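Each letter names a residue; the fold follows as tokens. Both lines appear below:
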Amino acid sequence: MRVYHKAYVYLTCGTDLLVFDEPDTPWLGLQVPGGTVDPGESFLHGAMREFAEETGLALDAAFEQFSSQDIPFETLPPVGQFRAPPERPLKGRHIRRNYHVRVAERPKDRWEHFEMHSSSGGAPIRYRFYWIDLFGKQAQEAENFFAAFGAPLSDLRERVAFLKRAA
């Protein structure tokens, strides 16, 4: 089984979470920026690089690891939130490190950006970015998220609520 090392960024502004979808593959659902860590690259540097590549934004903020996931895509049913397009196979074990980054102001409200160099190769991928309320209905439903990106949201909600109370 192939092992992929992945790093993802859960960017929040207050209680809003930055997400994206892929307009050309709408069945994938919601995702967060991130992706495959390059050989010799740390998870943190991979998260920073992937965030910039996918969003077109550079962040001047702290990246704090808040969760990890070990996802064996070989055993997941190939339907619903786990279905990947044929040209972007996900088979293998995904070792994920999830980072929380907080910003005081949204860099943009909505935008589109193309990933020009996806880890699986192929044509550029169009991403549509926007914000959702972490405590709203859309974020509460894990099935709205592709490939278990919604699984860490309960931990993130606790973290955001704690940080909000501490401020």
Summary: Residues 153-166 form the longest helix (14 residues). The radius of gyration is 15 Å. Strands lie at 3-13, 16-21, 34-36, 64-72, 93-102, 111-115, 125-133. The mean pLDDT is 88.
